[in-house]
Amino acid sequence: MTPRILLSAPLLAIVMAATPAAAHLPPGEYGSFLAGATHPLFGLDHVLAMIAVGLWAAQIGGRAIWQVPSAFVGAMLIGFGLALVGLPLPFVEPMILASIILLGVVVALALRPATGWAMAAVAVLALFHGHAHGGELGSAAALQFGAGFALATAGLHAVGLVIALLFARALQNGSGLLLRVLGGMTSLAGAVIALG
Hints:
By secondary structure, the protein is mainly alpha-helical. It has eight helices and no strands. The chain is globular, with a radius of gyration of 16 Å. It starts with a helix and ends with a helix.
């Protein structure tokens, strides 16, 4: 067996055993811009994934610092819209949990693909995050709520970027290792949430 297959089997088992992601509220608790803005901050799954996007963007550097998080937010809003109009997306909750693990792994491995590839990767994951939010929300307050959670998500990306940039300045050469450790811890936390 190749190492890729050996790594894929446990990840697939984790994804398939996933429980609903923690950031998602009962439908009655939605409705305003403030609810949308605070909603992502109370789900560990969302916080971990969003900060990891920021960490990864900082690791890649250059234009990725703003393009990768922007791709995530844009695709998340598309997923949100798809759910609002009733278009289904399979495996939403397992993919949200898998996104934590996958984003943690790319940070831990310090993968630095071309910015376009990183944007595409986070956009695919973002569709599931957005779809979950839109699927739980009635259309009455969708615009306000969507604007709030998009803004909060961008803020969490910024937290990841700031963490990465502060470590880079404070530790110079050692920052790469520290970010990789943070990525590994993120991936591990995702696995614990998925199996919990």
